[in-house]
Fold:
Amino acid sequence: MSTMILNSLAAAGAAIGIAFTSVPSPDDAYEGRAVTRLSENQAASHALHVFMRADRDMDQTLNVDEFAALSIVTAELAHLNGFIAIDNGGAVRTIALPVAAPMALSSTEHMRIDAVARHTFYAFAGEDSRLDGAEYVHLQKVVFEQADLNGNGALVKKELDIFAQRQAQLSTGV
Structure:
């Protein structure tokens, strides 16, 4: 396994450890905060918040390692919690995963998510091999649009399931 992948996995593992110990159970902290409708603007706002937190060196771009680590951490937390969290300026709400996920990702799943993330990164990063905020929000807009089955600019019910599954990098086919 390459050093780059090992470093990404180590960073992801450390972030998960910190985040997992600080995340209350969904029954406590997130009760009554389930998302029933997610607009394209809300999803874009969430994407921008995620981008800012993921930019660890604060250079206003993500490199491939930051993006891969973000993808792994997002998936791991979703699997551990059973939901994805949507942050719109501090108001955190949840979207439950549509299927039961294992409690933690296997090393094989880490490698799969890392490989997919790196491929996705280069598809959206442009010629500079960096992903700026606008490019990251665009990538998330594409994910949103793929889940918006009726194209009305809002996700509900089954569309939220698809969105959550894609954010969590579940490998089952919805």
Summary: The first helix runs from residue 3 to 22. The CA atoms of residues 143 and 169 lie 11 Å apart. The chain has one domain: 3-22+33-167. The radius of gyration is 15 Å.
